[in-house]
Amino acid sequence: CWIGNIQSLFMKIRIFFLLLVSLWLMSANASAQEARLTDSTTVLRKSSGHSPNRAANMSAIIPGLGQAYNKKYWKMPIIYGGAAALIYSYSWNNRQYQKYLGAYKLDSDTSSATNSEYQGIYSVNNLITLKDYYRRNRDLSVIGMVVLYAANVVDAYVDGHFYDFDISDDLSMKVNPYIVPDRNVYGYQSGTITGVSLTLNFKR
């Protein structure tokens, strides 16, 4: 049973990393397209030399370093606090798992001379339930650490893209009505469609 749980855990981690690699490939392709679409008359972003890829790589090497590069210092305590909590959770649950696993091995053998400290307190079935419970929590802690690490990299990359955008009070928004003709399948106008267009202007 525990072998199947471990195989299932590794399968989930492998699928997660495949999704992460796919995101990396998509981001690299988007960066290449952005570089090719540079227009001499229209500038969509200030050229400050700030690189989203560098931010992601820095967070991949040292979690939180990309957030510092993006000047999002307030995110660093969240990352390290979450990592500390998950590491503590892994350590605690692993100790409990090893303790109840050892007790199960002692109480489930045929020798009456090898009894655990839980003999008479927990039955063998209780020990199985306890060790499986803490093993599952330990494995979830590992998955949580992987997810936190990946989220740290993705967050640094996304923030790197928004680094040069102005999110101050200089932002402006325009709401305008629009009316377009509604044509049927034969191309004849059968009425009109009304709606509202929303335009956001990012001043940089």
The class by helix and strand makeup works out as: alpha+beta
Cα separation of the termini: 58 Å
SSE run: HHHHHEE
Query: Overall pLDDT, averaged?
Result: 75
Which strands sit side by side, in order, in the main sheet?
1-2
Residues in helices, as a percent range: 55-70%
Q: Could you name the ranges where pLDDT drops below 50 across 5 or more consecutive residues?
A: 37-45
Q: Please report the number of helical segments.
A: 5
Major beta-sheet overview: 2 strands, antiparallel
**Broad shape:** elongated
Extended strand count: 2
What is the percentage of strand-forming residues? 5-15%
What does it look like?
The chain has 204 residues and is α+β, with helices and mostly antiparallel strands. Helix content is 59%, strand content 12%. Strands 1-2 form a two-stranded antiparallel sheet. A hairpin with a 5-residue loop joins strand 1 and strand 2. The termini are far apart. About 4% of the residues have low confidence.
